[in-house]
Amino acid sequence: AGPLTEALVRADARDVRAAVRHRDGGEVDLLLRAVPYTDAEARPQGFVLMAGRPPEPGSLADMELADRAFAGSPVAMSMFDREAHYLRLNRTACRLMGVPEEELRWRAYEDSVPDDHTSRAFRQHLLQVARTGEPVCYESYTRAPASTREHAWNIWMWPIEAEPGTVSGVAIAVFDGSEQYWARQRLALLNEAGARLGTTLDITRTAQELTELVAPLLTDFVSVDLLDSVLRGREPAPGPVDEAVVLRRVAHASITAGTPEAAVPLGAIDVYPPESPVARALVHGRPVLSGPGQPDFQRWFELDPLRARRAREYGANSIMAVPLRARGSTLGVAVFIRYARQEPFTEDDALLAEELAGRAAVCVDNARRYTREHSTALALQRSLLPRELPGQAAVEVASRYLPTDSLAGVGGDWFDVIPLSSLRVALVVGDVVGHGIHASAAMGRLRTAVRTLADVDLPPDELLTHLDDMVTHLPPDEDPATELGEEAGVHGATCLYAVYDPVSHRCTVASAGHPPPVVLRPDGTTEVVALSTGPPLGIGALPFEATEVELPEGSLLALYTDGLVESRHRDMDAGVALLREALAVPAASLEAGCDTILRTVVAERPKDDAALLLARTRVLAPDRIAVWDVPADPAAVPEVRREAAARLVAWGLEDVAFVTELVVCELVTNAIRYGREPIHLRLIRDRTLLIVEVSDASNTAPHLRRAHTYDEGGRGLLLVAQFTQRWGTRQSTNGKTIWAEQALPAG
Predict the structure, then answer these.
(1) What are the pLDDT digits (tens) for 555-574?
(2) Do 381 and 443 form a contact (C-beta atoms < 8 A)?
(3) What's the distance, CA 584 to chain centroid?
C-alpha cells in the first residue's frame, strides 16, 4: 500500500502497480488508480479507488503503448530491414524526410535521398549494423531532405533481434545535436585563436589572421577595418568613438576565392555612416546584429549603393558588426556577413565573435605599440647617426645601416667619420648590446663620448682606454638601459676606432671587443687586419693595443658590425669570408659596392641590425708637404720663417704669407723655449686648408692664457688662436705636436 498511500497524499490521479494478497493466500499484481473527488465547492471529500490487472508484456495494450510512444517521439526514429528498406518511420522522421510514412515504407533508402557522401555513409553504417549486430553511433553535419539548413545530427543505430543472435532489422534514432555541436565548435575556435592570433607584431598580418580564423567556420565573409591612427602606431583615444568614423580596410576573407563580395579594396578608406550597424557597434562598444528588413540595415544600404548591390548579388541575410577594443580604446571593427549559410547570426555567435575580436584587438594593440616604439627608436637612431658623411681629403666614404626585421626592434649599431687635425680622419664603428629605444639612447651616448675624446686627438688605444673608463664608472642609474628596466646598455658595447693619415699612408686601429676590419688592396687581394682585440667596454682593468698598417693609395677599408657577417645559419668566419669575396667584386662606386656587399653577405631575414662603413684611402702628394728640422736655437727662427715664406710663394699662397709667418714664428719659438729636441716644422697644403705643425719631444702641452698689460710674453698662442681657423695639440709616443689650420682663399 506504500505507492498508493503516496498517491493519496499527493492527491493526484495516476496508475500505481501494487502486489496485494489474495484471499487464497497468494499474491496478485494489480494496477491501482486513486482519483480524488470534491463537493460542489471544490473541497476534497475522498478518493475513488479503481483496480485492474496490468497488461501482460507483449499484449495488445502494451504494444499499443509502445507504438504510440514510437509514433509521437520528438526524436526521429525509423526501422529498416537488413537490405536498408524502410519498415517504419515516426512522425518526426517523416517531417525531416518531407514525405509520409506510406510513401517510404518498403522503399530502398538510396532511392529516397540524393547520392552524396552523407547518404552513402548512412547506408554503409546501416548495413554494417545489420551484418555485425553491433550498434553504431556517429555524428553527421548535413541538411535533411525537408530542412532549409544544415544541422549536426547524432545518429544511433542498433540491431533488432527477433530471436537472440538473429538480426532481422536495424532501428535508428536521430537526435539534433546542433546546439552541442556549435558549442564545441566555438570552444575549438577559441582554442585555435590562442595559437593563430598574434604570431607576429605586424598589425596587418594580425588582422588577416583573424579573418582567416573565422571564415568559413563562423562566417561567409569578414572584413577588418582599423583607424588610421592605429596603423601609424599612435595612441587611440580612450572609449568608443562618438562620430562618423573613417577607417582603412586592412584585411578581409571569404568562402569565395578572391573575396568578390568586398565593396572596399585592401588599403582603401572605408566610411560608415552613423545610421549603419557598424557605426552603432563602434559608438556603443558592443556587437550589433542586423539583417534584411531591419531599419538600420535598410538605411545603411540606401546610403551605400555599392554595398547594397553586392548584398543583393550574393544574398546577404545576416550581418554582425563587432568592435575591436583593447585596453579601453577602440581600434577598429570586424564585420561578419552570412549569405551561403541560411541561419542568421545568434547571440551566441555574437559572444564568440566578441571574444575573438577582443583577443585580436589586444594583439593589434601590441603590434601598434611595437610599431610606435620601433619607429621612435629608428627615428632616434637615424637622428644620431651621421646624415651625410663629411667630405675628407684622406678618404672617400660610403655607408649603410640595415635595421633588423625581427621582433627585437632596432639595435644599437652605429658608425661615424670624424675629421682630425692635419687632414687625418677617424673611422669608428660600434655595437651597443640590446634593442629598442634604450639601445638607440645608449648608442647616442657612446657616439657623443667618442667624438668628445676624438677632439682631444688621442691615439686609438688611449681613446678606448678613456672610453672604457667612462663606461666602467658610469653609475647604474645613469645607464639608459637601466632606466628602462633593460639588462643591456653601454656596458658590454663594442667599438673599433681607426685613424688614417694621408701623409704617412698609415692607419692605426684599436678594438674593444669588435670584429677587425677587412682591407682590399689595390692589387685585388683582401686581408683581415690582424688586431689584438681588447675586451668589450665596461670590463675594465685590461689594456687596449693599437695596430698600425700601411695602406697604399686606393686601398679599401671595410668596417662593420657582427650583424653583417653573422646569422642563424652561418658563423662569423663564414660571413667574413663572404665579405672578403664581395669586397673584391669591382664596383662603379663605393655606394654600389655597399649594395653589392649587402646583397651578398646579409641574410634574407637578419636576426640583428647591421652597419657597414667603406673608406677608400687617398694620399697627399709629396709636393704638398714641406718639412724642416729646426735647431733648438732662437737664432734659427728668422731662417725658418724665410724658408716657410719661400715655400708659400712656390705654392702661390702669398695671400696667407703674413699670418703663416706669424704662426710659424710663434709655434717654433714656443717649441724652442719650452720643448725638447728634435724639433720639426711641417707645412701641409690641401685644396682648402693650410696646416702648420711644430713637433718636439716634450709631452708638456701649451696652455692658452690672456697676458696682462705689462707682460713681455704669453701672447703667442693667443695670436695663433685669433688669426687661424682652429688650433690644438696632440700627443704621441715621441712627444707632442702643436698645429694650426688656415682657410685658403677660394680659387
Answers:
(1) 999 999 998 998 877 889 99
(2) yes
(3) 36
